[in-house]
Design a protein that fits this description.
The protein has one domain. The termini are far apart. The chain is of the alpha+beta class. The chain is elongated. Strand 3 and strand 4 form a beta hairpin. Helices cover 28% and strands 27% of the residues.
Length: 85
């Protein structure tokens, strides 16, 4: 989620993967994939940079997780019964 600002000054978080287009006309308008629109205070370039930073942080976290050994769950062995018993 990225944090942007409504025209009234209140901040809110929005999923950048649901943004289809960003217009600057003159207010920055986020066109969402569901057809709705959100007008924000941040300039178009800033919104793009915020999204870029968000995506870079997601990739960084994934990279860090790949470098960290994950605990392996130990499975209990099921004892085998001798054949015929």
């Amino acid at each position: 989620m990225i944090v942007v600002t409504h025209l009234n000054g209140s901040q809110f978080a929005i999923n950048p993967d649901l943004i289809e287009k960003i217009h600057a006309n003159p207010d920055t308008t986020l066109s969402m994939v569901d057809g709705s629109f959100v007008i924000v205070c941040e300039p178009l370039e800033d919104v793009i940079e915020i999204i870029r930073g968000y995506r870079a942080s997601v990739l960084r976290m994934a990279w860090d997780l790949a470098d960290t050994p994950q605990p392996v769950a130990k499975l209990a062995a099921i004892p085998r019964h001798p054949a015929g018993k």
